[in-house]
Task: inverse folding
């Protein structure tokens, strides 16, 4: 995924340890890695200047939530650029992440399609 301001976000996984990888953001204008986010899902989207994905299934306190991360500041940012999380999403079972759909532009919500029941639900973008 490439943002309009030149940030490339890639999911990178290991052939030796499939199933757990990391989303990495790279600045294409000033070639460098901006940040990395370890996770267990390849499901993600861009929403304006934020990266949207699910929290890792192996992180019990925050498992099953949608998280948004500032494209430039990353997951350890503070203040207005800090990551934001939704309330727990009950249909994100261990290893079964729903699909995300983000409307174009700078949306204030996203659509989640459950993996098990194929229902659609619109939730506010955290």
Result:
């Amino acid at each position: 995924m490439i943002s309009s301001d030149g940030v490339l976000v890639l999911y990178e996984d290991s052939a030796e340890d499939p199933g757990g990888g990391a989303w990495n953001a790279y600045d294409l204008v000033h070639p460098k890695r901006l940040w990395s986010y370890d996770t267990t899902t390849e499901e993600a989207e861009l929403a304006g200047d934020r990266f949207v994905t699910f929290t890792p299934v192996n992180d019990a306190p925050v498992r099953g939530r949608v998280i948004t991360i500032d494209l430039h500041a990353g997951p350890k940012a503070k203040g207005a650029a800090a990551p934001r999380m939704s309330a727990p999403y009950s249909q994100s079972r261990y290893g079964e992440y729903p699909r995300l759909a983000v409307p174009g532009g700078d949306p204030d919500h996203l659509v989640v399609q459950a993996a098990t029941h194929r229902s659609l639900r619109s939730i506010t973008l955290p």
DSSP finds no helices and ten strands in the chain.
